[in-house]
Design a protein that fits this description.
There is one protein chain. With 146 residues, this protein is of the alpha+beta class. The protein is 52% helix and 22% strand. The mean pLDDT is 86. Helix 1 runs antiparallel to helix 2. It is elongated and about 65 Å long. The chain folds into two domains: 35 residues, no CATH class; 104 residues, Roll (PH-domain like). Strand 2 and strand 3 form a beta hairpin.
Length: 146
């Protein structure tokens, strides 16, 4: 909202601010805010949710049926459950928050044990290796050994 306020202030300073233009700046500021607002990822025992700017999507991690990676440039992780739920998130979110990663990994293991997770075990293994490597590097960096 600071963007729209600044633009209205500049428009007012130039003498061209009218009510329709102020409304336009407010709408444009809201659109910029919606685009730049990062999704919020939360998890609990058996579920993972991603809240975007409009709505929240949730999957049951104990009943995952597919887990796959898409997007060569901006890598995204897509999770689907047996109840039709689907979420999409970046793997960096999981690497940055070990608790989220642990909850997702534990749920995926339960899904694999129950036989519902049939697609994506290789993606999960690669993601686990990537997160473990990043964690090890962070520990080495923090201890001054790198």
């Amino acid at each position: 909202m600071a963007f729209s306020g600044l633009m209205m202030l500049l428009d007012w300073g130039s003498g061209g601010l009218t009510p329709p233009r102020a409304g336009l700046w407010a709408v444009l500021g809201a659109m910029v805010f919606a685009v730049l607002l990062p999704p919020r990822v939360t998890a609990g025992e058996g579920w993972l949710a991603v809240r975007g700017s409009v709505r929240e999507r949730r999957v049951c991690t104990d009943a995952l049926v597919a887990l796959y990676s898409c997007g060569p440039v901006a890598q995204r992780l897509v999770l689907r459950d047996a109840y039709g739920g689907c979420v999409e998130l970046t793997p960096r979110v999981l690497a940055a928050n070990p608790l989220l990663w642990h909850l997702l990994d534990a749920g995926a293991r339960r899904s694999r044990e129950r036989g519902t997770l049939r697609s994506g075990t290789d993606v999960l293994r690669e993601l686990a290796e990537q997160i473990d490597d990043e964690t090890a590097r962070a520990v080495l960096r923090a201890s001054g050994l790198e």
